[in-house]
Design goal:
Blueprint: E1 5-13, H1 17-27, E2 31-32, H2 41-65, H3 78-110, H4 117-125, E3 129-136, H5 140-147, E4 152-159, E5 162-169, E6 180-182, H6 189-215, H7 217-237, E7 241-243, E8 248-256, H8 260-268, E9 274-278, H9 300-303, E10 308-309, H10 317-332, H11 335-348, H12 354-377, E11 379-380, E12 383-384, H13 401-431, H14 437-454, H15 464-480, H16 488-512, H17 514-536, H18 543-585, E13 589-590
Antiparallel strand pairs: 1-8, 1-9, 2-8, 3-5, 3-6, 4-5, 7-8, 10-13, 11-12
Length: about 600
């Protein structure tokens, strides 16, 4: 359900703006419209710092996952901890680059062995120059032959198919052979390793700072919330319209109808603030907040992946939620996997945050649905229940592939028809019943056609003329009256085009629900395959070994299958909801969520 809102327009003297906004922020019930807001330099810096806070949260999560990680002593406050974190993050990034470079240089220097760079420099001062080269091993004999007795060539090492050598001579003249020349090293590999050890010591110090920052993560998070609070206040202060040579400020605010009395009470304490309170109009960009019961609330997580419903329209969460739950169970299609998800929901519930509680409830509902559909399909961790003696009397009650195929299309058709009914109700509420006549006509054609095809098979016999009458009235409504603002004859052309779109669209929409059947069948088949592999490949092994190998195969195979099946069961019903259901229900979205100006923790 979309919570009803009240619109406020505040008119106040510009010098009172900060005080008034501070009072609103303390109350924490009013969303100030900031449309057209452009960040100044200070606000851009705050946005950048908030992004750094998000990066810190991700880094701390990675840090906690490291094996053997031990938090340090926390810092005194969140601001100090965050500053230390930033400096340590920059230092670690720089040190990682330096260490990687030093490691490569150490590998390159290792081929030259142990030598004295000081002796090289002293020899160079006396005119004796050592030059460093390498060639492929097969080319080194040719180098020795070309050098002859005129040039001193000394092989130093062989590595990676190349021969490394030095020449001794006076000056830098050309040599009678081709080889890759290197710059004379100014340190040995041991010197570079000692440099690496110093860098690693600095990294260890920076990691120690990070361990302390991790221990202060709650204080850092609180510092980030205070920063966001300051940004929200600054953004509200830089919004609004200026009038009377910038002496008056006009602000637009929103509050829920349930809390508007508290806002009115606050405004009574500011007699110099003129305000107007009214109901939102369709032209307003009204912020949206949802409020649903305990069963529907978990499915808000799914809806938020797409968008919030526009204010004044219908919140479809309560209507797509049961379908999503059924579709998830259909796609997973295994009672054993559903049981694991049900148990996992109780583990998630241990994390007492509101968001995790919502996810736990969603997991519980979807897991129970998978248990139900798994038993209907006769699959428990890939074991076909119809083949077990204890279920021998129920074999005919399990759904076979033909029944599952028909059920997937049937559920899809029911959801589409239900979406059309919601579309009619929603349009009638917003604009009037006459604007829903086109959709009503299309619905009557579907109902009449379905009744003619399926009702006789269920034993319900009605006159054929009744079906034709329903479909005929529907055709008139859809072709001639779909736009009540135009002449019915003018509507004829666009009505025929709408008919074509509706027919072809319905076919594509219904066929989309075949994915429910396909995912159910593929998940169950893979589970059966892993069972056959576990017991087929181990049949000739000794008893103890065969049991161990079978358990490993089963755990590995079913883990992969559960992950892939659950992922598919999560994504594909969501796709059916956002494309087929939302389209036929006439869903209209908004990107503006109700976010009142408030203090941290309120």
């Amino acid at each position: 359900m979309i919570v009803r809102m009240s619109k406020y327009t505040f008119v106040l003297y510009h010098e009172r703006q900060k005080e008034f906004l501070a009072a609103l922020q303390e109350l924490g019930l009013v969303d100030i419209t900031t449309t057209g807001w452009e960040a100044n330099d200070r606000e851009r810096a705050m946005l950048a710092e908030l992004e750094q806070h998000r990066a810190a949260k991700s880094y701390f999560a990675e840090l906690a996952a490291e094996e053997g990680f031990v938090p340090g002593e926390p810092f005194g406050d969140g601001e100090e901890a965050f500053g230390q974190y930033l400096r340590a993050a920059v230092a670690l990034e720089e040190l990682k680059g330096k260490l990687e470079k030093a490691r490569k240089e150490a590998e390159e220097l290792a081929v030259w062995g142990d030598f004295s760079p000081a002796t090289l420099r002293r020899l160079a001062d006396e005119g004796i120059v050592l030059r460093f080269f390498s060639v492929y091993d097969s080319e080194f004999p040719a180098v020795m032959q070309a050098a002859g007795d005129a040039i001193i060539v000394e092989q130093v090492a062989r590595s990676g198919g190349r021969t490394f050598f030095v020449t001794v001579g006076r000056g830098e003249g050309e040599l009678p052979f081709d080889a890759q020349e290197y710059k004379a090293p100014d340190m040995t590999a041991d010197d570079k390793r000692r440099q690496m050890a110093a860098l690693e010591a600095q990294m260890e110090q920076a990691r120690g700072v990070m361990a302390r920052a991790y221990a202060s993560r709650e204080a850092i998070e609180a510092h980030g919330e205070r920063l966001r609070e300051q940004l929200d206040f600054s953004r509200a202060g830089n919004s609004g319209r200026r009038e009377a040579e910038d002496r008056l400020v006009i602000l637009e605010g929103w509050a829920t109808e349930a809390t508007s009395a508290q806002v009115d009470e606050l405004l009574a304490a500011y007699p110099d603030v003129v305000y107007f309170k009214e109901r939102p109009t369709p032209q307003d960009d009204t912020p949206v907040v949802l409020k649903n019961n305990r069963f529907v609330n978990p499915f808000e997580v799914i809806g938020q992946f797409y968008a919030l419903p526009r204010y004044g329209t219908m919140d479809l969460t309560a209507f797509f939620g049961p379908f999503y739950m059924l579709f998830f169970g259909f796609c997973l299609g295994d009672a054993g996997y559903g049981l694991l998800l049900t148990l996992a929901s109780f583990f998630l519930r241990r994390k007492r945050t509101e968001a995790m509680k919502q996810i736990a409830n969603l997991t519980l509902l979807c897991g129970l649905s998978a248990v139900l559909f798994g038993f209907l399909a006769g699959s428990f961790f890939g074991v076909q229940l119809a083949g077990l003696k204890m279920f021998a009397g129920m074999r005919e009650k399990f759904l076979d592939t033909d029944m599952l195929f028909t059920l997937s299309l049937g559920l899809g058709f029911v959801q589409i028809v239900f979406a059309l009914v919601l579309n009619i109700v929603n349009v009638s509420r917003q604009f009037g019943f006459k604007y829903s006549l086109g959709t009503l006509g299309w619905l009557m054609i579907l109902v009449g056609g379905l009744g003619m095809v399926f009702l006789p098979g269920l034993g319900v016999v009605l006159p054929a003329a009744l079906y034709y009458a329903v479909m005929g009235v529907g055709a008139v409504l859809m072709i001639f009256l779909h736009n009540p603002d135009r002449n019915p004859l003018v509507n004829f052309g666009s009505g025929l085009w709408n008919t074509y779109n509706n027919v072809t669209g319905l076919l594509g929409d219904v066929l989309s629900y075949i994915r429910l059947f396909a995912l159910c069948l593929s998940g169950g088949t893979l589970a059966l395959v892993f069972n056959d592999l576990a017991f087929g490949l181990t049949a000739d092994l000794p008893v103890v070994l065969s049991q161990i190998v079978a358990i490993v195969i089963l755990l590995f195979g079913h883990s992969i299958n559960l992950f892939m099946s659950a992922l598919g069961a999560f994504v594909h019903p969501m796709r059916l909801t956002f494309v087929e259901f939302y389209k036929n229900a006439g869903f209209e979205s908004t990107q503006r969520e109700f976010t009142p100006l408030k203090k941290t923790g309120k």
